[in-house]
Design a protein that fits this description.
binds nicotinamide-adenine-dinucleotide; alpha/beta; three-stranded mixed sheet; binds 2'deoxy-thymidine-5'-diphospho-alpha-D-glucose; seven-stranded parallel sheet; 333 residues; Rossmann fold
Length: 333
C-alpha cells in the first residue's frame, strides 16, 4: 500500500505513522503536513531516515501540492485539522478552511487518481453532548463548538461523496486521546507540564464534565482495522471505555507527580462546554477492535513521559504557546 498521511507531524498522526511502519514494513508513506503551531517534526525523529517514509511540508488546501503527492499513492488517511476547541472559539476561520475545504481538496485528488481508499479521521465531538447512554453511528450530529461543527461539515461532505460518486471513503469518530507528544494546550499535557512547573491548573467550570479517554495506540490500532476491514460509506465510532470527570483526571495526575491539590484553580467555563461524551463502539468491535491499554497504567506512563522529556515540551511552551495561553486564559482566573 502507498499512503498519503496528512497531519502526520501532529499528535495522533505521528503515532500512526510509527505504528504503520512497524506493523507493515513494506508500506510506503508520504506525510503531508503544513507544520502549523501543532505540527512538530521532533515527533518523528526516530523514523525520518526510514526509506519507506518521506515528509513533505505543505497545506491540504493547496490543490497543486496535494495532486502532486496524491498521484504517487493509492490511499489517503486524513488527520490534518485544526483540533483545539478553545482556539476554535477564539478564531474559527482556520477550522472552516482546513477541516472543511481541505477535506474537499483531498477528496478531489483521490477521485482524480482513482484511489482505492480514503479514510477521514473524525471525532465524537460531532455528536455533541449526551447526559446518559452513548452515541451510536446513527445518532444525529449536533456539534456545539466551531471545531466540532467544522469536523461535522467535513464528515457530511465525505459521506455525500460516497453516495454521489461511490467514493471509497470510511469515517472514524474517536473519543479523547492521550499519550506522549500531545501538544500542551490539551488538558492532560497542559496539567502535567504546569504541575511539573508548580503553576496553577485552570479547571473549567465545576470540573465535572466527563470525557472518555483512549490511549493513542488503541486509536491507531482501530484505524488500522477500519483501513483494512472497514466498508465504504460506513462510520465507525472508536471509544476507550474510560469515562472520567475532569476533576478525577486532575487528581490522578497530581497524585502521580506527588503535587498538591492546591494547584487546582477553578476558572470561568468554556462557552458551549459539552458536558459528557460517550460512544457505543460495537461496530468497530465487530471488526475485531478491543482497547488493549489499561487507562490508569497508561496515564501513569504518559505522565512519566512528560516528566522525563522536558526538552520536548519546554521548547513548545517557551515559544508561541505563551502568547496563546495568555490570550486564552486572560480574565478567567
Ligand atoms: P494535532 O493538532 O496534534 O495535529 C494536527 C496536525 O495537522 C498538525 O501536525 C498540523 O501541522 C497539521 N495541519 C493542520 N492544518 C493543516 C493543513 N491545512 N494542511 C496540512 N497539515 C495541517 O491533532 P491530533 O490531536 O493529532 O488530531 C488528529 C486528527 O484526529 C484530527 O483530525 C482530529 O480532529 C482527530 N481527533 C483527535 C482526537 C484527540 O483527542 N486529539 C480525538 C478524535 C479525533
Ligand atoms: O473528544 C475528542 C476531542 O477531544 C478531539 O476531537 C479534540 O481534537 C480534542 O482537543 C479533545 O477535545 P476536548 O475539548 O474534549 O479536549 P481538551 O483537552 O481541550 O479538554 C478536555 C476537558 O478538559 C474539557 O472538558 C475541557 C477541560 N479543560 C480543558 C483545558 C484545556 C479544562 O478544564 N481546563 C483546560 O485548561
Amino acid at each position: 500500500m502507498r499512503l498519503l498521511i496528512t497531519g502526520g507531524a501532529g499528535f495522533i498522526g505521528s503515532h500512526f505513522i510509527r505504528y504503520l511502519l512497524q506493523a507493515y514494513p513494506k508500506y510506503r508513506i508520504v506525510n503531508l503536513d503544513k507544520l502549523t503551531y501543532a505540527g512538530n517534526l521532533d515527533n518523528l525523529r526516530d523514523v525520518e531516515e526510514n526509506p519507506h517514509y518521506r515528509f513533505a511540508q505543505g497545506d491540504i488546501c493547496d490543490p497543486v501540492m496535494v495532486n502532486t503527492l496524491a498521484q504517487e499513492v493509492d490511499v489517503i488517511v486524513n488527520f490534518a485539522a485544526e483540533t483545539h476547541v478553545d482556539r476554535s472559539i477564539l478564531e474559527p476561520g482556520g477550522f472552516i478552511r482546513t477541516d472543511v475545504h481541505g477535506t474537499y481538496i483531498l477528496m478531489e485528488a483521490a477521485r482524480r487518481f482513482n484511489h482505492r481508499r480514503y479514510l477521514q479521521i473524525s471525532t465524537d465531538e460531532v455528536y455533541g453532548s449526551i447526559q446518559t447512554g452513548a452515541f451510536t453511528e446513527d445518532s444525529p450530529l449536533q456539534p456545539n463548538s466551531p471545531y466540532a461543527a467544522s469536523k461535522a461539515a467535513g464528515d457530511l461532505l465525505v459521506l455525500s461523496y460516497t453516495r454521489t460518486y461511490g467514493f471509497p471513503a470510511i469515517l472514524t469518530r474517536c473519543s479523547n486521546n492521550f499519550g506522549p507528544n500531545q501538544y500542551p494546550e490539551k488538558i492532560i499535557p497542559l496539567f502535567v507540564t504546569h504541575a511539573l512547573e508548580d503553576q496553577p491548573l485552570p479547571l473549567y467550570g465545576d470540573g465535572r464534565n466527563v470525557r472518555d479517554w483512549i490511549y493513542v495506540l488503541d486509536h491507531c490500532a482501530a484505524i488500522d482495522i477500519a483501513l483494512h476491514h472497514g466498508k465504504t460509506g460506513e462510520v465507525y465510532n472508536i471509544g476507550g471505555g474510560n469515562e472520567r470527570t475532569n476533576i478525577e483526571l486532575t487528581h490522578l495526575i497530581l497524585n502521580e507527580l506527588d503535587k498538591p491539590a492546591s494547584l487546582i484553580r477553578s476558572v470561568t467555563d468554556r462557552p458551549g462546554h459539552d458536558r459528557r461524551y460517550a460512544l457505543s463502539d460495537q461496530k468497530i468491535r465487530a471488526l475485531g477492535y478491543r482497547p488493549r491499554h489499561p487507562f490508569e497504567e497508561t496515564l501513569r506512563e504518559t505522565v512519566r513521559w512528560y516528566r522525563d522529556n522536558p526538552a520536548w515540551w519546554q521548547k513548545i511552551k517557551s515559544g508561541t504557546f505563551r502568547h496563546y495561553y495568555d490570550q486564552q486564559y486572560a480574565g478567567r482566573w
